[in-house]
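User: I'll paste a sequence; please echo it back and then give the predicted structure.

Assistant: Echoing your sequence first, then the prediction.
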Amino acid sequence: MPVVEPRPPLHIVVMIRETADPLTLFAEWYAEAEKSEPNDPSALALATVAADGTPSNRMVLLKGYDEAGFVFYSNYESRKGRQLLAHPKAAMLFHWKSLRRQVRLEGPVSQTTAEEADAYFATRARGSQIGAWASDQSRPLESRFALEKRVAEFGARHLIGTVPRPPHWSGFRLHPLLIEFWQDQPFRLHDRLEYRRADAASPWSTQTLYP
């Protein structure tokens, strides 16, 4: 016999509290995610596009956000790095399962300054700094031994003193023109609140979307 779902309630409790600035709402949600997510509340899916229009997606970590945009770091010679340098537009997706929430962002991408990248690189664990030098990210690896050998070589090269930032390793900043907040609701009648603007200098407009 077919499965009959219960009828939805007549009134849906709206969980999303609209604010004038989407960053205010994002900050509230992000702070809650930091308390409830068991691992990496800063993790996000980053979508880029290749020269032929093929989309590409992977997880990265958010390293900062403010009115200027959302920042992450990468090897510029990696697949995502090359795609972003050639086609500087991207989309982000945060999914916080513990809160049954997600946030989508879309917009153009720019490079961070060398000073910003240097400051963040200096905070990384030394092993991660050496790894940034040793890894030819996204390119074929002949064996695990080859990677470990390169790590040992660069570790010996930077045995004493601070590890400088590799010239091919830096940051990107997504400047959102669209931010959508999604909140799970019963019977898949989810709350969706979209913020949109024409450019970074324009004010935000909002609209509620069908689930």
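The beta strands are 43-49, 55-61, 64-66, 69-75, 89-96, 101-111, 169-174, 178-183, 191-196, 205-208. DSSP finds five helices and ten strands in the chain.
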